[in-house]
């Protein structure tokens, strides 16, 4: 995904802070909670599973754990790292182009020097 701006906007608008996966067998629901200081959790995602999908509880639990792990702060950090990598790649490409230009220029200058200092020009 290269549309970092859209993902960043979504992450910035989402509930901040740490998210946590919870499962209560009494209600048979899988919950992703947001915990804030001096308070109980507030459900961000609370569902019995994915509608229309015949998934096993362990797969639903795995998905809920993934959602909790991919909370907005993590997404924003990953976007920042991806943008830094893109900037470094652009800098590397610029330096490689400059190196190629210098190498070609040096090669041309050496060829010209060989022509000027060749055996027939020494006499």
Q: Would you mind describing this structure in some detail?
A:
Residues 78-105 form a coiled coil. The chain is of the alpha+beta class and 123 residues long. It has two domains: 17-70, no CATH class; 76-121. It contains three helices and three strands. A three-stranded antiparallel beta sheet has the order 1-2-3, covered by helices on one side. The protein starts with a helix and ends in a 6-residue tail after the last helix.
Keywords:
123 residues; alpha+beta; 2 domains; three-stranded antiparallel β-sheet; 3 strands; 56% helix; rod-shaped
What is the overall number of helices?
3
Total individual domains:
2
Query: How much of the sequence is in beta strands?
Result: 5-15%
* Estimated structural class: alpha+beta
Radius of gyration: 29 Å
Coiled coil: 78-105
Keywords: Coiled coil
Pfam family, one: Ead_Ea22
What's the short version?
By secondary structure, this protein is an alpha+beta fold.
Strand-helix topology:
Blueprint: H1 4-13, E1 19-24, E2 29-34, E3 42-47, H2 57-69, H3 72-117
Antiparallel strand pairs: 1-2, 2-3
């Amino acid at each position: 995904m290269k549309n970092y701006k859209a993902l960043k906007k979504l992450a910035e608008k989402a509930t901040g802070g740490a998210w946590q996966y919870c499962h209560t067998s009494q209600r048979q629901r899988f919950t992703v909670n947001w915990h804030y200081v001096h308070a109980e959790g507030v459900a961000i995602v609370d569902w019995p599973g994915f509608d229309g999908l015949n998934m096993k509880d362990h797969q639903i639990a795995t998905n809920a754990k993934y959602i909790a792990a991919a909370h907005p702060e993590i997404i924003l950090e990953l976007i920042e790292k991806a943008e830094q990598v893109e900037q470094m790649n652009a800098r590397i490409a610029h330096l490689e182009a400059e190196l190629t230009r210098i190498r070609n220029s040096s090669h041309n200058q050496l060829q010209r020097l060989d022509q000027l200092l060749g055996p027939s020009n020494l006499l």
